[in-house]
Amino acid sequence: MVKERRSPKFIGLIMALFVVLVGCLVGCNNGNLGLRGGSVDGYVVDSRTLVGVASVYVTATSAEDGDDTAAATKYTTTDSNGKFEFSNLRSNVWKFGFSKTGYTTLESTATSAVTVSVVNGEHISLPRVEIVQNFSNQYVRIRGTLRDSVNGNAITYGNTNFAFGSTSFSNRLPTELQTGFDVPASVDTVKVVISVSGYKTLTVTLDNLINDYDLGNISLTPETYKIVGRWTNAPGWVVSAAPTATVIARSGSNVVSRVTSVVGDGDQSFALEDIPRGTSVAIEVELLGYRMNSPITVYPDSDFQGTIYQNFDLKNNFSAITRDVRVYYMSSTISSGDRVGAYCEQTGTRWPEVTVTNPAGLTLGTPQVVDLGTQALPTGYAFDFVGYMLEDSSGTHTATGVKINDDGSDAQIVTIK
Question: What top-level class would CATH report for the domain 38-131?
């Protein structure tokens, strides 16, 4: 039998196949052929809403190999849920970039880029990637209605300035806000500053101004002035009692300012504040034992902002509410011919002196109770009464702390004994 001889060509073919097989194994180990490459997936969401963002362009870039192999780059886009996936990534360090119109781009070459080490045959899920929406070229409309905080009416005139962050609109009418102003959208805090002549400036803070915004009814407080009042010619008994007065400023039927003040307290002054600029007011006062002769009217200039000083004179602007007081003097030492009188220490009011005589036709002797008649005194306050006999100083008697009430039309009786 002749032994079969293998030709050199056949042996060469076998060796070539062996080299190719070894190359394949090495390639698999290095991930070059992708047969055992790693995979990476993840989700891209809106940083504000945390909802997945579709159609985001995702870039995966590998680092350069130590054997001078150039870096590789792969691309994909997110699906409707914001998910992306790369398969067959060779074993290496990969950086990921994300870009979409309307969002701030995250570059794959940036030092802060999402980075992961891919190992052959392993799957890696990246942490959620948040991209920030960019509103630099987008605008929203802000509208609203300006109203007077005092009467609730819409403000229709007056030089008006609007500032929405760094965007301002000057020399406008208040009613233009009802139509609205187009301003740059922003995810940051935006301060809205509204200035209308005759009103205090108002600042409103808005967050996430990324959609049209209706401010609704916006109340503006009119610029104001104040009236500083001072009590004058208050009688001593009023100052001693220190009653609390209620002071009201009215514009028409509306109360625009109110204050309480203790008469006789400190410097005798008080302040009616926050009266709308240019508004005339009629001032009324409620005070124990007094009524105003008429309201005190204050007429400011139309553009006045400041302080008006006004006296409230208890002698000239007010009238005391009085009541008749009948005084009886009682003493066991009264003799016929004695002269008896009385007076009020606080007001100085005096009752006429009466000469005591025996009653005609009677033998009962001198009366021990003398009716001195009536005098009018202010109500609401307590007074001291002094009764006396001209011929006998020991016949002086007092009735102290007698309050004059305003609860009846008949004379109030005061007995001094």
Answer: mainly beta
CB 190 within 8 A of CB 125: no
Q: Write phi, then psi, for 173 (nearest 5 degrees).
A: -95, 150
- Shared fold status for 139-220 and 322-416: yes
Q: Specify whether the CB–CB gap between 82 and 44 falls below 8 A.
A: yes
Indicate the residue type of 162. F
For the domain spanning 322-416, the CATH number is 2.60.40
Per-residue confidence band for 2, with pLDDT thresholds at 50, 70 and 90:
very low
The answer, as to whether pTM is greater than 0.85, is: no
Question: For residues 243 and 261, what is the distance between their CA atoms, to the nearest angstrom?
Answer: 8
Residue 398's Cβ-side half-sphere holds a number of Cα atoms within 13 Å equal to 6
* Pair 388, 340: CB distance under 8 Å: yes
Q: The dihedral of CA 244, 245, 249, 252: what is its sign? A: positive
Give counts: helices (H), strands (E), the chain: 3, 31
CA distance 398 to 134: 91
Q: Does the domain at residues 139-220 carry the CATH identifier 1.10.3120.10?
A: no
Query: Looking at domain 224-320, what is its CATH homologous superfamily?
Result: Immunoglobulins (2.60.40.10)
Q: What is the DSSP string of 149-204?
A: TTT-PBP--S-EEEEETTEEEEEE-TTHHHH-EEEE-BSS-EEEEEEETTB--EEE
Work out whether strand 160-164 and strand 167-172 pair parallel, antiparallel, or are unpaired.
antiparallel
**Structure confidence at residue 180 (pLDDT):** 96
Domain ranges of the chain: 38-131, 139-220, 224-320, 322-416
